Amino acid sequence: MECPICLEVQDGPQHQCREGHVYCASCDSNLRAPRRCPECRMALGPLNQAIRCRSHEERIAALPAACSHCGLATTRGEVAAHEQDCPQRPRACAAAEAGCAWSGLLADKAAHEATCPFAVCQRMMAPLVAEMRAENSQLRAENERLRSRVAALEAGEAGEEGGRRVRQRVGAAPHDAPPSNAAVRAMDVAAATAALRVHVSDSRVAAAACKRLEELCMEDQNEQVAADAGAIEAIVAALQAHPQEAEVQAEGCAALTNVCFVNDAAGRARKQRAADAGAIEAVVAALQAHPQVAGVQQRGCAALTNVCSGDDAAGRARKQRAVAAGAIEAVLAALQAHPQVAGLQQRGCAALGNVCSGDDAAGPARIQRAADAGAIEAVVAALQAHPQVEGVQQHICAALVNVCSGTDAAGRARSQRAADAGAIEAVVAALQAHPQVAGVQQHGCMALGNVCYGDDAVGLARKQRAADAGAIEAVVAALQALPEVEEVQEMGCWALRMVCFGTDASARARRQRAVTARAPEAATAALQAHPENAAVQEEGQQLRDLLV
């Protein structure tokens, strides 16, 4: 039931082409012109005439689900309504926007608010706030009336100078009043950026403008246009101005993600510009301030991934800056707080793997800090919780590669910790479940090789555990299924070599098992298919030498 575009099972409306291929409505809305079915490439009509697939929606709604708060077994169609009223769902204090950080059960909320100084002040201020809002409504109505008069009078006085004279005579407000959400939705990149910059103190406009920039920057050509207009600094300013507004934080992180998406030279410059503006610290603060809001957590992790990506010196410095801001702990808290949200697990593991990559001097310390914070167990738990979601499996395996990298004692200890958490079996299951997905196979083989590295007693035990789980056959199947993918061939040969290495009887049995699975033939095929790839040649030849 996965959408072929985002590779996730999405709730909500499902669209289909005339041939019956189904994809989620959110992905359909993001298709670029010319709009075509992602499966058969058939031309699609306008989005407002999309064909709904009610039967697919009903099947998704009937899938089993569990409440993330109390664990009650229900269905995907009903779990949202249940979670909204679940007595175990954490509630924030009514004065959260005023600064109270309390969060607890509904049964304890009334007792807390009775003594909370923020809530007490809020109740005392409520009549004054209501009076102020009523006056603001009257002022807005008067302003709209004056605008109408200005428009009518300007029709009779041509030119900007005439318009200014009219506004002076009637006492109308200037044209910099906060725009409506509808007006923001119609803006181009420059206008949306200007609105965000001018009205950054207005949380409604800030959220709407960030959302508009997010949408516009889905088009690659708009990313640099937005940066040139000052969108990066405006978005970061909005995040900093409204730390307690979840909507602003979610939309701001999403906008940052898209503006910093591409990884070419201009894209890397935008990432650095975002970091220089304080984006990393602002995103980490958003994760820390809204731990129970899955949307903020997912988009914040995505923003961290994009802003911190890059394997040059500047990219490694951004990763280190994220760690110093507390990104590792914030991302892990997100993974642990929302284990059933597949998209968050995918984005969170991608962020974790990104921050833990890099061959700079501080790289090993970042990796160890992640392990000490519980990253290995969190990543393996995500791998086990979402076995059928390709994107989750791919990014989690990639994160496992980085967190378990290292050939020193600390690296071997992390590999053993991963094995103890069930990583070997989970990775093999991922390889078996997604045989045609190159990303899963590549990163799964890399993760398997990393975890099985080592020739001490515990290292040899990990190799045998992998063989017992079916790793040899799964990796050979990957080599056979994806002969044209160089990365799969390289990593598959390397993983087999790690699993089959050893001099004892068990190692000889593993090598015989690999021969029986036709690993030598797969290695030979890899050598023949990629004669110009030095890495494939090296790994394939070493595997053949080990087995033959």
From TrEMBL:
GO terms for molecular function: zinc ion binding. Residues 3-41 form the RING-type domain. The keyword Zinc-finger applies. Pfam families: Sina_RING. InterPro entries: ARM-like (IPR011989), ARM-type_fold (IPR016024), Armadillo (IPR000225), Sina-like_RING (IPR049548), Znf_RING (IPR001841), Znf_RING/FYVE/PHD (IPR013083). The keyword Disulfide bond does not apply. Keywords: Coiled coil, Metal-binding, Repeat, Zinc, Zinc-finger. It comes from the Eukaryota. Residues 129-156 form a coiled coil. This is RING-type domain-containing protein. It comes from Emiliania huxleyi (strain CCMP1516). The lineage of its organism: Eukaryota, Haptista, Haptophyta, Prymnesiophyceae, Isochrysidales.
